[in-house]
């Protein structure tokens, strides 16, 4: 596959021009990658008005993902989520109080996007599971919720895969959305690679109308590289507005390093990804077999993610992290209940062997299992926008009962808000803060 952006930059470096343009490093090494870090000079095209090499590269990506339009973002899925919601907002029927019907485990960038649009959220809460990481939304539940809506939501918004590797039944959910003529948007930040598994499990293939993928999370792409894809049938007309939508939330100086890596990734996806992913999947299965022999279950349903249920060890999240680090392994996330390991086609066989040996060495333990509290529907005092734009102060979560949440104060990972902006902090929130070791929260100042 052609790699027009990377080729252009290689040629530019060869010409050895005296650089009188940005960036200020002028291509001279400090990190080592500076010569490739250019800006929108003649011939380099323009990310938000592409006509040349960027458009060609994005069209290559669109073919690989079978979309009607794929656009690149250099600000990750955080930028892409803002842009997707903006696009849904523009395309939706007029409605007195625009809102999105969303699974409760949405990332905090979703809440910030709502605040910028002045839109609200109606959450679907997890059934039969505790904690904030997952939210299985059965098609029947979605159907009931949509039937009960007096005004149609802007969109249905589902996070799949979720942080623990739970995947939604996108096919069934998309059929329900189509019945109600509401677009299905999927936060597929963790699942770009799903397109290149033996069975194509990408949400766009399964019926999503638009989705974002953090290419940088599961493909060989530099941090910040992401896609927004509009469905092949594009029945809501998103394709034509994705550029405008992503421009509103992006820098006018997009990183060419990120664009080059997205461009080179197209070649990888066409030629190498499927074989690499298959090999990693088999190696991950071998780790799962070791876990099984040790009585450790994997709650992930994603091929390239293991979420080991280690609750019986009775460790805190920091003890669990320290345990893995001391054995030369860095997980994606530990919370005392689960340790999450993300693989790509770039993990080598030695990585998997090391992880398997760590599971072999795990002490057998039988501590009382501590599960997170269920997330309960919360009372709202302010709109998301009013709360995010209010003067706020940081206080200890133990003193926050009855105050109004201003910002979804949760760090990355997993950056899934326990209290959402505008909600009144309840006992349930405080229990969840305690469980996830969150000791400070930003609340709206009292008059
Ligand atoms: C489910 C989910 N959505 C969105 C994001 C934001 O993605 P990015 O880091 O690419 O901006 C994350 C980040 O971890 C995430 O886990």
Walkthrough of the structure:
The chain is α/β, with parallel strands linked by helices and 447 residues long. It folds into 3 domains: 268 residues, Type I PLP-dependent aspartate aminotransferase-like (Major domain) (Aspartate Aminotransferase, domain 2, 3-Layer(aba) Sandwich); 88 residues, Aspartate Aminotransferase, domain 1 (Alpha-Beta Complex), CATH 3.90.1150.150; 61 residues, Alpha-Beta Complex (Molybdopterin biosynthesis moea protein, domain 2). Helix content is 36%, strand content 12%. The protein has a 7-stranded mixed sheet, with helices on both faces. A 3-stranded antiparallel sheet has the order 8-10-9. Helix 6 links the parallel strand 4 and strand 5. The longest helix has 21 residues. The model has no long low-confidence stretch (mean pLDDT 95). The site of pyridoxal-5'-phosphate has 15 residues, from helix 3.
Proportion of residues in helical segments: 25-40%
Bound molecules: pyridoxal-5'-phosphate
The H-and-E topology, N to C, reads as HHEHEHEHEHEHEHEHHHEHEEHHEHE
Terminal Cα span: 61 Å
Distinctive features:
single chain, Molybdopterin biosynthesis moea protein, domain 2, binds pyridoxal-5'-phosphate, alpha/beta, Aspartate Aminotransferase, domain 1, Aspartate Aminotransferase, domain 2, 447 residues
Care to give the gist of this entry?
The protein has 447 residues and is an alpha/beta fold. It is built from 15 helices and 12 strands. The strands form 3 sheets. It has a 7-stranded mixed β-sheet with strand order 1-7-6-5-4-2-3, sandwiched between helices.
């Amino acid at each position: 596959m052609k790699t027009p952006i990377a080729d252009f930059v290689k040629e530019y470096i060869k010409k050895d021009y005296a650089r009188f343009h940005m960036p200020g490093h002028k291509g001279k090494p400090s990190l080592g990658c500076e010569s490739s870090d250019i800006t929108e000079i003649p011939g380099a095209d323009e990310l938000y008005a592409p006509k040349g090499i960027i458009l060609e590269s994005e069209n290559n990506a669109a073919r690989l993902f079978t979309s009607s339009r794929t656009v690149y973002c250099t600000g990750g899925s955080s930028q892409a989520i803002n842009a997707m919601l903006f696009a849904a907002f523009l395309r939706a029927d007029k409605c007195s109080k625009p809102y999105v019907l969303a699974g409760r485990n949405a990332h905090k960038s979703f809440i910030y996007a709502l605040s910028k649009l002045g839109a609200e959220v109606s959450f679907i809460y997890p059934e039969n599971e505790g904690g904030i990481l997952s939210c299985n939304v059965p098609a029947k539940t979605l159907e009931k919720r949509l039937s009960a809506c007096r005004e149609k939501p802007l969109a249905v918004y589902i996070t799949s895969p979720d942080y623990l590797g739970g995947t939604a039944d996108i096919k069934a959910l998309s059929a329900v959305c189509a019945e109600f003529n509401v677009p299905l948007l999927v936060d597929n930040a963790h699942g770009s690679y799903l397109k290149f598994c033996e069975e194509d499990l990408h949400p766009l293939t399964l019926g999503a109308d638009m989705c974002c993928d953090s290419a940088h999370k599961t493909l060989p792409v530099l941090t910040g590289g992401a896609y927004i894809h509009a469905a092949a049938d594009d029945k809501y007309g998103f394709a034509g507005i994705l550029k405008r939508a992503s421009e509103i939330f992006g820098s006018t100086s997009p990183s060419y390093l990120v664009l080059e890596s997205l461009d080179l990734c197209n070649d990888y996806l066409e030629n190498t990804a499927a074989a690499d992913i298959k090999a990693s999947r088999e190696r991950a299965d071998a780790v799962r077999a070791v876990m099984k022999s040790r009585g450790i279950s994997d709650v992930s349903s994603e091929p390239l993610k293991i979420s080991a249920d280690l609750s019986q060890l009775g460790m805190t999240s920091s003890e669990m992290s320290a345990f893995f680090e001391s054995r030369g392994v860095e997980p994606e996330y530990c919370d005392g209940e689960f340790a999450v390991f993300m693989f790509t086609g770039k993990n080598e066989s030695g990585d998997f062997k090391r992880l398997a040996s760590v599971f072999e060495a795990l002490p057998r333990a039988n501590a009382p299992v501590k599960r997170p509290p269920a997330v309960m529907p919360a009372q709202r005092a302010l709109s998301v926008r009013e709360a995010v734009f209010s003067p706020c102060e940081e206080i200890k979560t133990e003193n926050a009962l009855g105050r109004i949440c201003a910002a979804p104060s949760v760090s990355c990972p997993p950056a899934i808000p326990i209290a959402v902006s505008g909600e009144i902090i309840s006992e349930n929130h405080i229990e969840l803060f305690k469980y996830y070791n969150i000791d400070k929260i930003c609340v709206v100042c009292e008059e």
